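Incident log, structure service

09:12 report received: a user says their structure output differs between two submissions of the same chain.
09:20 pulled the input from the user's history:
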Amino acid sequence: MQPRNMSMSGVVDLAALKAAGEAKAKAEQARAQRQDAGAPAPSAASPLVIDVTEETFESEVLQRSSEVPVVISFWAEQAEQSKQLNETLERLVGEYAGRFLLARADVYANQLLFQQFGAQGVPAVFAVLAGQAMPLFQGAAADDQIREVLDQLIAVGEQRFGIVGAPVEAGAAPAAAATPEPRPATPQELALSAAHDALDAGDLGGAVQAYRNVLADEPANAEAKLGLAQAELLQRVQDADPQAVRKAAADNPADVPAQLAAADLDLVGGHVEDAFGRLVDTVRRTAGDDRDAARLRLLELFDVIGADDPRVVTARVALARVLF
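09:34 re-ran on a clean worker, output below:
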């Protein structure tokens, strides 16, 4: 399986997108409280690999996630693939030297935690940033794929939440790091940052326009494309009445706009397979402009989730079958 169940213009699941500003403020408040109390930053003084339980989850993961990205690996003794993935992650956490922490969770000893994260099986890998949980990937993955996801996670922590971790050697006390010379932001970076800020502030119209401005100058900017897809999706559902939308879709299976609206709600609500399945069925039942509308909306939702997500791969195959 491919390791990106994480769309990276920000930390996104969509709920985290809408709460990013609040989460960043909480993270900054937590850091300030620790500084006032004279407490060390958890990421600097603690091991890079921990075994987390339901009882220690708040202190070992949630609180520490305000200082450093925490990667959670759900594993089981009977699942050899999950143990192999843990070995890979343990090696990588040493290489990344404090830029993220690894929390291993035995699913049989932590079934409630496993269920709360909504994992479908093991191995399953999630992350927590500033108290915000998000899926990373499920199943086996190659080193380069895992590194790509980790790099994206760390970048999001820095750019969206102000979380930079504490680079140290595993098992060593942190040394004072030299302050790097700041690099002036490019105009493209400033424009992208403005788009992210608008999205965090709930200014969806402003975010849509800002992402379009970035793409006008840089059409291949993947981060801007993803941000635009997310902002447009949130804009479509922000005033929707979920009950009315779902009733209209159930009562009128042939009503393409009703099915599009319901699929948007499905995705925002985390029912990714339902959203994709609904639109694939709509493509299958329709023709002409209606079919094109359903197909294009499905492709937009693929962009929101990420092309490498296994659910997107499966839905692309299903779409191809009904089209050809």
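09:41 both user submissions now match this output. Likely a transient worker issue. Closing.
09:42 reviewer note: The CA atoms of residues 16 and 132 lie 6 Å apart. The chain is about 60% helix and 10% strand.
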